[in-house]
Amino acid sequence: MNSQLVRIHIADDDPDDRLLISEALEEINFENHVSFSVDGQDLLDYLLRQGDYSSLSDPLPDIILLDLNMPRKDGREALREIKKHDQLRQIPVIILTTSQAEEDILSSYDLGSNSFIVKPLSFENMVEAISKVTDYWFKIVKLPRKP
Amino acid sequence: MSHNANLALSAEVSVQTQITAHKRKTFYWLTFVIIAGSYLFMLDSSWRSSGEFHTVLEVIAMLLAFIVGAIALVEYHSRKDVATLFVGAGFFGTGALDCYHAIVTSSYFQEFLPSGIEALIPWSWVASRLFLSVMLCLGCYYSILAKRQPEKTVAPEKIVFIGTALLTLGCFAFFAFVPLPPAYYPELPFHRPEEFVPAFFFLAALIGFYHKGDWRTNNFEHWLILSLMVDFICQAVYMAFSGTLFDIEFDVAHILKCVSYLLMLTGLLYNIHVSFSSIHQEMRVREITEEELRYSQIRKSAIIDSMADGLIIVDSEGTIEEANASTETIFERPLNTLNGLHISALLPDGLEQINTAGTSDTPAIPETTATLKDGSSFPVSLSIASMNLGRHTKYSIQVRDISQQKAQEAQMITRQRELENTNAELEKFAYIASHDLQEPLRKVTAFADRLQKKYAAVLDERGQDYLQRMVSATARMQILISDLLSFSRLSTTEMKLEPYDLNKIVSGVIDDLEVRINQSKASVHKPELPILNCNPPLIRQLFQNLLSNALKFQRPDTPPIISINCENIGQMVDNNGVMRPWCRIEVKDNGIGFADEYREKIFEIFQRLHNRSEYEGTGMGLAIVRKIIDRHGGRIDVSSTEGKGSSFVLTLPLSF
User: Fold this and answer.
1) Contact A16 B443 (CB under 8 A)
2) In chain A, which residue's Cα lies nearest the Cα of B435?
3) Which range of residues forms the domain containing residue A16?
4) CATH no. for residue A88?
5) pLDDT tens string B20-47
6) A122 vs B443: CB contact, 8 Å cut-off?
7) Does A19 fall in a domain?
8) What is the pLDDT of residues B180-225, one digit of tens each?
9) Smallest CA–CA separation between A103 and chain B, in Å?
10) C-alpha–C-alpha distance, residues B45 and B475, integer Å
11) Is A120 domain-assigned?
């Protein structure tokens, strides 16, 4: 997948967390495409090219990092809808959230998330996690070709 | 008294009886020999007394006979012993005949009677003796019959009395009007052969009573035998050989008759003595019993009326017979209205309750409802006992008003539920709080870290120092919140226990701490550990905290030596009420130890004994350890010597 730039989309309501994730991506010299959503509804609008994004012509993201606890529409709902949608459900969704509650882990996998990561406490660990995630999904794992 | 004691006592009694019997037998022989033998000394005597002497003797005999008769009949009337009936009637009749004999043989009546004195005296003597001997014989017969078949034998009272009266009167008439044959037969060796007939009957009675055997134990029969013996000797040895009136044999026979009557009287008087003393004794016993009964009644009334619970006595149909004062208070009905009332008026299912109680052996204490006159009901606790009084069964019902108790119980349950709710809320709060506190902390740490990495060059030394302190502080806070979160989770999570090998857990912990162990050149000794019934991750955390502490609080320049010991301490009940084996595990170190006064404090949350610069830590480690132990139902004890080391002893449940 080196010819094309890969696209990573992050949905998180917390601006600080959005900043930290970008900083982490910066640390690992991620030169690929990064986009953000601020909550579940925003994410779906973006993916479905509706609402504010009706005129968007960018390709769909290759992976989505999804926070669970968001206002308006939370990550769980968004996950459910994504995994129900014919075109969207092929996109690997990685839950990246503060909660480590068993019921959240279980329900996320139940709804079809591809993996579950608890936001590391230290920035150093965050960098390490982001590095591993991008390595894994973009260098090791085979992703489907986009239509 | 025990069976053995009873046997011993009866053996003792029978030995006594044997001694008495032996004594009596000897006495009989002696009596016989002496009295009968004395005749040998009188053979050549030429003694002659007078008619007056004879009359005196007969009057004495008659009085004695009447006395004996009267006493015997009175005794018969009270005791219905058949022998005494015949003795009584016999002596009474004999008394009458002796009286008759005395009168007709006295000088005053000579002219009026057909026969001469030589025939009259002997024949009227024979009549009296024959009557007595036959009566005593019959008495012996009926006595033996009564002994063999006590229920079937009925003393022929009417026949005896009527017969005696008729015979006596018949004798009177006979002697008054019939001329008598001669009484003396000088040609025969025994001059008065007719005397042998009463002698025969006396002997028969004697033998009969002797064989009956009661003379061994019964004093009356003993004296009766003596009397019969004397009678027999009187007839067969003396009177039969009397040659003329008023000779020695004649007089001795008359004296012996009086003696035999006296012996009989002695027997009867002895009976009377025994009766009187036993009456007296019985009266004493009755007095004591009555007094005890009175006291028992007083005690019973005192107890029953002072009872706080109601006590109701009902018959097997459920009708109330008695009730105590408290029943009146509990049911708000006057006592006099309760007697005769059916128990269902007070306890709707009362009859059912007493029937159930009647069938079970163990006392039942059921709870049920009682009703007041106005129909309102209240909860009561009953204690029912059945009283088997021979033909009837009664029941005693103890009634306790438990409305207050029930109300308190309900209150307690409500309060407990409230407490549980509060607890649950508090724990949830602690969990959420610590969780939500982590979020801003995470940001602060992250951006401080970014600052340090990207903008350290811009800050001067002091600025960098400030930044570093901030970073350390937030790091500490993160550990604190993380520990707090673990601690609160310990209370909320469900404890799932499983059998798990402790060796694996401890080895795992030692591996985790490998770096620190090597750094401090510590040595950890662990024996073969058992399989616990536990929650493995929690136990892991427990040992992690303990061993981590042991490594942390080492004496400077002394490599830590940690030894773990384990011993079984037998069976105990665990948190779920299951009986299982338990073990005691000791974790001992040679570190800095602590003063004994802090023994309890070290387990408290956030408590530290040293300040931050000496030893790092949040003061949560041991609080978590104790919480884990608590949730396993075990206990933890610690002993320590400052400067020498500490020993932590845990009690934990083992798998089966």
Assistant:
1) yes
2) A99
3) 7-140
4) 3.40.50.2300
5) 888 888 888 888 888 888 887 777 777 7
6) no
7) yes
8) 777 777 777 777 888 888 889 999 998 998 888 887 778 888 888 8
9) 13
10) 150
11) yes
